[in-house]
Amino acid sequence: MPSLSKAWRRISHSQPSPRTKAGSEESSNASIRSKHANKSTNTLDTASADSNSTTPPTSVSNPDLSAGASEATLTPRRPPMTANGTNRYSVLSSNGFPQARVSPLAPIITSISDGSATHQKVLLVRGQIGSLEALGDLHLSSSHPHRTYNGLVHIFSHQGSFPVYSVPVVESRFKALIHLQAGRNTLRFEFEKARSSHGVLPGEHVSWLNLNYIPLNASPPLHLAILVAADSEEKFDAPPHRVAAEGNDLEVAKRKYRMAAYLWQAYTADQMQRNGFLSRCFRLEEEWQPSTLGGFEDPQPWRSEARIHVIRLKQTVAELRNPEYAQQNPNAKESGKLFEIAMQACKEHFKCVPNGQKQYVSAMFLDSHWDPNLNLLTGHAALGGGDGESLQLAIFGSHLLYSYPMCIQHVIPAFNDCTPTDTRYVCNDCGDCGSSWEAANVGIGAHMHEVGHLFGLPHRPSGVMMRDYVKLNRTFTVGEPFSTRTRSPGKKFLPREEECAWSRLDCLRFRYHPCFRHTTDRYTPVEGGIQVWGIADEVTATSDAGIAWVEIYADDDEMCYAWKEYLPRRPMQGSESPRSDQCPRTVRLVEAELREHLKQQLPANKKKFSKIRLQICSTTNVQLTIDDLGKLTDKSSLVKIPNGQKAYRSGKLGLGAMEGSKPQELVLESAYLKVKEKDILGNEVVKAKVVRSVRVYHGLALDGIEFCHEDGTSQLFGSRGGKPGGDEFVLDTRIGETIAGFYVRAGAWIDAIQIITTMTGRKSPIYGNPTGGSGHTLIPPNGYRVMGIAGSCGQWVDSFQLIIGR
Q1: What is the pLDDT of residues 125-136, one digit of tens each?
Q2: Which pTM value belongs to this model?
């Protein structure tokens, strides 16, 4: 009996049919339905058999579905519904859109509600045949329907803006990618049951879905680039049968790469929705161009689709394929060279400049090549990162590009193509690509993994940022074919719990990443520094932007197994994405509580650890790392004031690693000293010593700070270098104005400083280099005040801390 994967293989390289004229569409659709409905089982088996197939065995077998798959994908577009036609199977919702189902077998979309807004052109939806209320979500492992249906769901886009295509229904479940155009979209889903014993009426099992596609324009885009060698033939590796069916030139590479990027976007939006962030996702740079998402349409329409930059490198093919550059060569001397080449080329092409708009680029080397003689993949590296200033980059090779789908209609066939990998022509990457569908998993998924690094994600214990992308296909298909990687038979259905996922921490980082910003998000300042204060036996973390979550690490472990979230709870499930302005600005971190929480989450072989490392994350995507939480609350953080009072040091800004740097500590005399003065009547009174002004010494960095008192004395932290005489900021002591805190710009050293006073809104100018380092606002938590400063100084001040007390 033929498998589901065989049927989809038959159409994996077929071209979507050109659109037919409106006058012939209805009769064409009716004839297709009639043909499927009246075929016997034997006829269907004969029609779908492939005697020459070398497909590995699979447990997925549905002859009716297999027979109809190939032809139904070519279904012409149905004309708009008329008032006297099949509208009897739907009613209008309150907004005037078709909405309600009448037939019990009409498709139900379970992954998104009617009338929702989405922000990506290609949307992944899940659905089922049968009542959601009665059966529950059939895509969960807990659902076991008594009766299931197989067949096809035909998808009709808004106003015929995209070719009609079909997806299989397996045991009443289906998944589909739908194409949206900007604005309001009304989509039609029509179920055609397999083995129907009677003629199928047009529009018998129909449902509608209304969506609003709102393109993003408030975030920097992800650019897509193909890197081509100076003397490249502009071909990528592919087995002969693929070359004959599709080609392997630059234009085909662009089609496949573009489709892969839309799969990344659809997958990420779906994962964000599952984590309670609606359909939040990154955006792709798009341009108006001949469309490829709909396949080979005739005539070819123009649409706004992802732009592919073709960047010609200075290096030749031979240079790129140097075994010393090959990442998978264990003896390579320059395994990071390809990343350097890509970084330089992309900086020049995208005109990246320091302190300018940071660019986000995903690049692919077209000239990657599998050398069977050397048993080595050359011209390829899977890396992601950036320079921290102007460019974030992910790179990958084209060695698995042959297995990618070229258009939306090819996605399900690509993830069901069991054609064995022929290592005479193409690479079996890491032994995980024994068949075409597994190669597509690794190619699309591993490149997405590097895009995760581009967005600042570290490795995780599981999910995309480990190696779970070998299961990427499960998100887009109901079942799975035979796997050469695990030697496991195919399955008709795999529940949502067994799919690949972005981890919860990845989704949290995406939520507050600038590339995932939505037009409805509140404005957040670029400077969202985090400060930590070791007070008694706990640490207080503060941030004006709000603290979203804290990651907890054991010792120097790279993997994070435990974290605490501070996101506000939504009023009801699915109502809105948590607002960043509702995150707390101050959180308490008690070491004993964090240790216990970490122990509960760690695997058995990592239960023993000595120190706790924290990474505190704000809503502006700023992270602060505390290497050892215990040191912030031990005796070394205590400062004894001469009057016996206890004070505490804040977290350190700057590295304090300058040659000749020496620690310094200054406790303000105004914090504890009392002076005797005579009032206007000649009576002797005791009052606190008062700081009259602050003098700042600086050039393009902070050299020193001098606190000048009303009695003519002063205290100096650092030196009097830089601008002769420094700059003086005078306080209005008549109304009791004092120092409330500082705004500090710091990196490796202290670049600049600004004094913040207790008078609302009053600040000094920024002294030093106002654009150096990153910004941090140092204001003590409620109930505490500035009692001094500490740090270190070499040629200039290279570290800075506040001393605070009651």
Answers
A1: 999 998 887 788
A2: 0.82
